[in-house]
Amino acid sequence: MYKTRATTTFVLPGILFSVTLLLSACAATPENGSAETAASGTSETQAAARESRNALEQRSSAEAEPEIRESAPERYVVKKGDTLWDISAMFLQDPWYWPEIWLVNPEIENPHLIYPGDVLSIHYVDGQPRIMVDGGPRVRPTHRLSPEARVVERDEDISPISTLQSFMFRPQVLDEETLENAPYVLASQDERVIFGPGDRVYVRNAEDTEQYELYHIVRHDGMLIDPDTGEELGVATLPVGEAEIIEPGNVARADIRKGEREAIRGDRLVPYAEEQDRLFDISRAPAGAEGTIISLFDAISQIGQLQAAIINRGERDGIENGQVFAAFTAGREVRDPISDRANDVVTLPEEEVGTVMVFQTFEKVSYVLVTEAERTLREGDKVRAP
């Protein structure tokens, strides 16, 4: 028996955890296949394959070759629940090099997807290692996955979606004036101080809104300051939920439709924004690029793997979604217990402790996800091109 479920699928070639969702989706077989549906995407997928091959060839010729692990298997059979990041780490010293070594098999309809049962192996082309899918044409489900929301039929027993998707929240960095002038939650119909989905709330300063207009509910999380220049980079906000204006006015009525955390009095309503395009490849940050972690998302003093932070570099600095940085802990200052000099303080060297990946950019800052961490990261830690 199948049930209909709306799922947002992100096609992120070579990106951490993205394939868990894709593998899970493709392992399910629709009840009624359609040859016409499969045929309709043939030309598009072939074009995508050609484009991917060209991009990879150009990137590989321009940059140093990644290093294959000595322990890399000669053949590996993809299992349900595998992630591309895990598979990449099995073959490569640095998993983010995957797009540079992945060789698209022209027989494969969609070069960005790997399926349970596929056999991956290392081949050498012009003396350089490449990883590709062996074997003949694979059986495909008749529905096609794309980076937009589609309703597809899934077996109820399909495993949970990708871990990465849960971190694809919609952060917003706003200027202080915009946030201060935005409508805000005033109260509810009763005396409660926290509100959630299904609650009717009253909103102040919403005269210019329209009936049934959707808003993001956000909470002020502090001004972001560049530690190097002192420049104000914008106000970070916490995503709270979504609200719909039912009756505009100086004291408007609104219904909370969705909640990521409890709404409280004073939370702001900002215009609903479409999610930033998630169709991006993983890549190294530009040579020489570096920045500083200036804020931790939803954390007090430290974060670890699969948690998010904000760095003081954004679109104006050439930062793009999918770029990977190496993370370094800032060297602590310690007193030398042996030195004869009074107050002899030594700054310890920085230590590389993991990697972070950009997943949401703004003009002056970017949100990054910790993909690997040997130790926790804190505000003030550095990120640099690997």
UniProtKB/TrEMBL annotation:
UniProt biased composition (Polar residues): 32-46
Native organism: Thioalkalivibrio versutus
UniProtKB keywords: Signal
Superkingdom classification of source: Bacteria
Keyword Amino-acid biosynthesis: no
Signal peptide: 1-27
Domain LysM: 74-122
Comp. bias regions, Basic and acidic residues: 50-70
Upper classification of the organism: Bacteria, Pseudomonadati, Pseudomonadota, Gammaproteobacteria, Chromatiales
Name the UniProt record assigns to this protein: Peptidoglycan-binding protein
